[in-house]
Amino acid sequence: MNEFALGFSVAALFKGVVVTLLVTTGASLVAVALGLAVGLVRVSTLAPLRWLAVAYIEFFRGTSMLVQLYWWFFVLPIFGLSLSPWTVAIVGVGMNVSGYGAELVRAAIQSVDRGQYEASTALNFPRLTMMRRIIVPQAIRGMLPPWGNLLIELLKGTSLIFFITITELTTASKLAADATGNYLLFFAIALFGYYVIARAMITPLVRWLERRFSRGFIREAVA
Amino acid sequence: MSDPMVRFENVTKSYGALTVLDQLNLDIERNEKVSIIGPSGSGKTTVLRMLMTLERINDGVIWVDGEPLTHMDRNGTMVKASERHLRRVRGKIGMVFQHFNLFPHMTALQNCIEAPVSVLGLSRAEAEARAAELLDMVGLGDKKGHFPIQMSGGQKQRVAIARALAMRPKVMLFDEVTSALDPELVGEVLNVIRQLGAEHDLTMLMVTHQMGFAKEFSDRVCFFYGGKIAEQGPPDKLFNDPDNDRTRQFLSAVLEAG
């Protein structure tokens, strides 16, 4: 193996990891923020708002993420809107995942006990205050495990941003493997790379949040 | 004579083909304590739920404190109440539920200050003082920082009573508030209600299976059967010498069960 190629490949691979981490973090923030927002609109009492949320979910969940990225990157410029690859990567991946996120937010909100809504009505809470102070804090607990799944999916999905010119972990591994001929090594690195990122970042974050939001639900988590 | 505190005027409630309440007429005077008894499915809990606006009515009007709750006046005609109107009139009513429905993510104290702060606009300090006083009153002054999961059923129900009172309602509704409790915890909750009745100007309407308590505490008892009031009157009369056969059958069945 050529030492130059190896050194070059390792440097590129390191950069790929950083890119994947950055895009995953950015897209996750977009996905969570939009997922929460659209999920809440999805359970609105105003039907037209609900329809908008349904349309959003159907579009982003029902069409291909790669094709969505192509639209952001190659089709929007036709209409005069040119976005940088990074913007498309973070917003495009984030919005795609937010479609799934909105549905799990809705499910979690609707699974909060009926009695909580009734007590809130009896105490005369306006609906938005009830959602913010009573329902959502309880729903968050139920939505954390599925959000964990979704963000791990998102992490792995970021490999698609190769198609909009960004060299991330998978691409860097492929290039390194091609350059050095060592497919076993570099695809092993890619394989475990995603696992390590998910296991070291996403899982602990979700676990920590689960403990935090379990106050009052599990005896041990009270204090 | 002043308006009754609560008036049900020809109120009908049905779910599809099933009529739960059929043209109910019922007046409850200021500070009156009324118990509602009757077999399962007789519509008694629905009466409270309609008054709390948890159920929409199909026909008739409910009045609270001299103004319509379910309807409002628009240019001289009565129209269905808007959410805003509902919120204004509903503020006069508080409710305690069979299954407590405390907010599990909040301590006892937080449960009692959340609505006074975010609905009534009290300052945090004011709300905390009010909540602390009420929790003391229900005998839970030392449990302020406890979460519902750390409390017994009886304690939870007493917090729920304090939480409802913190909104200073004029009418309190109690929906089978001891039915989910272990027998030895029933007394502590009933004592709180007894004390409330004695010390506060409150109109109280309760659905109960505690016949002894209903007899001792109520000014009037209503026996519901098949979506109607089959019989009503002072507890002595209704429990000891009922006029209606249904009442007699119900009471003997309940008393037999112990």
UniProtKB/TrEMBL annotation, chain A:
<feature type="transmembrane region" description="Helical">
    <location>
        <begin position="69"/>
        <end position="93"/>
    </location>
</feature>
<dbReference type="InterPro" id="IPR000515">
    <property type="entry name" value="MetI-like"/>
</dbReference>
<keyword id="KW-0812">Transmembrane</keyword>
<dbReference type="GO" id="GO:0043190">
    <property type="term" value="C:ATP-binding cassette (ABC) transporter complex"/>
</dbReference>
<dbReference type="InterPro" id="IPR014342">
    <property type="entry name" value="Ectoine_EhuC"/>
</dbReference>
<dbReference type="GO" id="GO:0006865">
    <property type="term" value="P:amino acid transport"/>
</dbReference>
<dbReference type="InterPro" id="IPR010065">
    <property type="entry name" value="AA_ABC_transptr_permease_3TM"/>
</dbReference>
<keyword id="KW-0472">Membrane</keyword>
<feature type="transmembrane region" description="Helical">
    <location>
        <begin position="183"/>
        <end position="202"/>
    </location>
</feature>
<feature type="transmembrane region" description="Helical">
    <location>
        <begin position="12"/>
        <end position="41"/>
    </location>
</feature>
<dbReference type="Pfam" id="PF00528">
    <property type="entry name" value="BPD_transp_1"/>
</dbReference>
<comment type="similarity">
    <text>Belongs to the binding-protein-dependent transport system permease family. HisMQ subfamily.</text>
</comment>
<dbReference type="InterPro" id="IPR035906">
    <property type="entry name" value="MetI-like_sf"/>
</dbReference>
<dbReference type="InterPro" id="IPR043429">
    <property type="entry name" value="ArtM/GltK/GlnP/TcyL/YhdX-like"/>
</dbReference>
<keyword id="KW-1003">Cell membrane</keyword>
<keyword id="KW-0813">Transport</keyword>
<keyword id="KW-0029">Amino-acid transport</keyword>
<keyword id="KW-1133">Transmembrane helix</keyword>
<dbReference type="GO" id="GO:0022857">
    <property type="term" value="F:transmembrane transporter activity"/>
</dbReference>
<protein>
    <submittedName>
        <fullName>Ectoine/hydroxyectoine ABC transporter permease subunit EhuC</fullName>
    </submittedName>
</protein>
<feature type="domain" description="ABC transmembrane type-1">
    <location>
        <begin position="17"/>
        <end position="202"/>
    </location>
</feature>
